[in-house]
Design a protein that fits this description.
The protein is of the alpha+beta class. The chain contains ten helices and 15 strands. The structure holds zinc ion (ZN) (2 copies).
């Protein structure tokens, strides 16, 4: 089921002020509160939906992420990615988002948990970033060193990440006394919400750094050299610890996850470490036997011996000519499936020879073909 737009859920317009968002939420919360809707089973789900929408829209950081990336901001994380190919970023694949959920629970857990710690450092951890990287099968075979440009944010060098101008220190937020959260009576229930003054950080900056507007980090593209090991496949994730988005106000950086996608190859299909390909063989060679040369994934050539009388679809194997195993172990094999080709555009001499061949086949060896012998025995049985 598609998720509803958060603004729509709260019944406010996209450009709504934080006050309007708050009012919209209160209205919905009263309307949908489970205590008032005992007979309407859908009210509870809608109430939860409204709570979820408000959780995001009341928080300046989360709201900005939502405005920019939509629901995807919380499915896979915020921002980043996409450098490898269009449609990067997040969402799309359920497995990915569930794989990420623990990471992001952790992230938002830290953020929300700031209130309980009381005082101290309010820095929050930077977001994890995802980068989609498409490589060729040959690159997956050999492994590679690749420089990627990751759009992310880095710690501000002007204020050393503190967000405060000229060596001044952030001070405890007066609204929430440094707790990061405030309690408020809303109608008949009390809610605890992120402090609007400090966005839950518990600290405010009187003189924000001019380079980063007090965030302690600035947007920047970073060039990273990544080592892609041999044997990776589509879905392989490579984690670069601490290479994600910088934390707020000197908090720890998130991680960068590189998601590998190996492009389709025109000749080889892959199954784990094994490779498969179809190779055309002339009718004469399939009948007489011989050897054929086939291209291999390492850029070289391999030779396979074809037994005489080979039929189309016969599989030959080149041991050890498949893909390397990512976590050690022996390399896979390469399987070659023969595709026997019927000759076309024959010269008159070739036609003559084939006709002669056909005659010889019928006269001298009528039982040689399984097909003809089965037709013959079928007619025999009908007669009998
Ligand atoms: Zn700064
Ligand atoms: Zn505060």
């Amino acid at each position: 089921m598609a998720k509803r737009d958060y603004y729509e859920v709260l019944g406010v317009s996209k450009g709504a002020s934080s006050d309007d968002i708050k009012k919209g939420y209160r209205r919905k919360a009263k309307e949908l509160h489970p205590d008032r809707n005992k007979d309407d089973p859908s009210a509870e789900a809608q109430f939860k939906e409204a709570n979820e929408a408000y959780e995001v829209l009341k928080n300046a950081e989360k709201k900005a992420a939502y405005d920019r990336y939509g629901h995807a901001a919380f499915e896979g994380g915020m921002g980043g990615g996409g450098g490898g190919r269009p449609g990067g970023g997040f969402g799309g694949n359920q497995d990915f988002s569930s794989a990420f959920s623990d990471v992001f629970d952790d992230l938002f857990g830290n953020f929300a948990g700031g209130g309980q710690r009381g005082g101290g450092n309010r820095a929050s951890r930077g977001s994890d970033l995802r980068y989609n990287l498409q490589i060729s099968l040959e690159e997956a075979f050999g492994g590679l060193q690749k420089t990627i440009n990751v759009p992310t944010s880095i710690g501000c060098t002007t204020c050393n990440g503190s967000g405060a101008e000229g060596g001044s220190e952030p001070t405890s937020c007066p609204t929430c006394s440094g707790m990061g959260k405030v309690r408020a009576q809303q109608g008949f229930f009390t809610v605890e919400r992120t402090c609007p003054t400090c966005s839950g950080l518990g600290q405010i900056i009187k003189n924000p750094c001019k380079s980063c507007q007090g965030a302690g980090r600035v947007e920047k593209d970073r060039a990273l050299s990544v080592n892609i090991p041999a044997g990776v496949e589509t879905g392989t994730r490579i984690r670069l610890a601490g290479e994600g988005e910088a934390g707020m106000r000197g908090g720890p950086s998130g991680d960068l996850y590189i998601f590998i996608e190996v492009a389709e190859h025109e000749l080889f299909q892959r199954d784990g470490t094994n490779l498969f390909c179809r190779v055309p063989v002339s009718m004469a060679k399939a009948a007489l036997g011989g050897s054929i040369e086939v291209p291999t994934i390492d850029g070289g050539r391999g030779r396979v011996q074809i037994p005489s009388g080979s039929q189309s679809g016969r599989q030959m194997r080149l041991r050890g000519k498949g893909m390397p195993a990512l976590r050690g172990g022996s390399a896979g094999d390469m399987f070659i499936e023969l595709a026997v080709e019927t000759p076309v555009n024959l010269t008159s001499r070739q036609k003559e020879l084939l006709a002669e061949f056909d005659e010889l086949s019928e006269n001298n060896n009528p039982e040689s073909s399984n097909f003809f012998s089965s037709v013959k025995s079928f007619w025999d049985s009908m007669k009998g």
